[in-house]
Amino acid sequence: MERKGKRESLWIKLYLVVLFFCGVGIWFCTQPVKRQKISTDVSIETKIVEILVEHNVTQDDILKQYVRERKTVNAKWDEFYKVIKLKPNQNIEFFQEDFRKIARDMKIGLSRLNNIDGSATYRFYSPDKTYSNITVVPVKSLKNGYKK
């Protein structure tokens, strides 16, 4: 009789283990598919391009652009660089409000550096990363010999 009790106890334990694994399997199957997270640098660049398109900036207006990959021990990101030629009716503050809105929405910093040649560079950053540098060059700076 003691042997029968041990056998039943073993079957109950085995049944509970199988039931547990079935529950875990069902839980994994019913989890929603997680969307792939888009990194901050790409999100910022996408929003900047949307602003430029809204303001009719063409490829001819972009004097120079490139991407530099950055790495630290814990992270990897891209820094985007653009030099944009402004139209005659635009000044260096033309994109400033739109850039501020992007920075607020993304919860990152935005700084503006006025360059000696009359251009201005807008920098999107967080404390340990720079995501994007956009230099806007007014027409008068181009006439004075702005170097690409």
What is the overall number of helices?
Answer: 4
Largest sheet: 5 strands, mixed
Q: Indicate the structural class.
A: alpha+beta
Q: What's the helix-strand series?
A: HHEEHEEEH
Tertiary shape: rod-shaped
Q: Mean of the pLDDT scores?
A: 82
What are the low-pLDDT stretches, counting only 5+ consecutive residues below 50?
Answer: none
Spatial strand sequence of the major β-sheet = 1-2-5-4-3
Beta fraction of the residues?
Answer: 25-35%
Topology readout:
Layout: H1 2-30, H2 40-54, E1 62-71, E2 76-85, H3 96-106, E3 109-114, E4 120-126, E5 129-137, H4 139-143
Parallel strand pairs: 2-5
Antiparallel strand pairs: 1-2, 3-4, 4-5
Helix pairs in contact: 2-3
Q: Can you give keywords for this protein?
A:
148 residues, alpha+beta, 5-stranded mixed β-sheet, 4 helices, rod-shaped
Describe the structure.
This protein has 4 helices and 5 strands. Strands 1-2-5-4-3 form a 5-stranded mixed β-sheet. The relative contact order is 0.15. With about 150 residues, the protein is α+β, with helices and mostly antiparallel strands. The chain has helices spanning about 1-30, 40-55, 95-105, 140-145; strands at about 60-70, 75-85, 110-115, 120-125, 130-135.
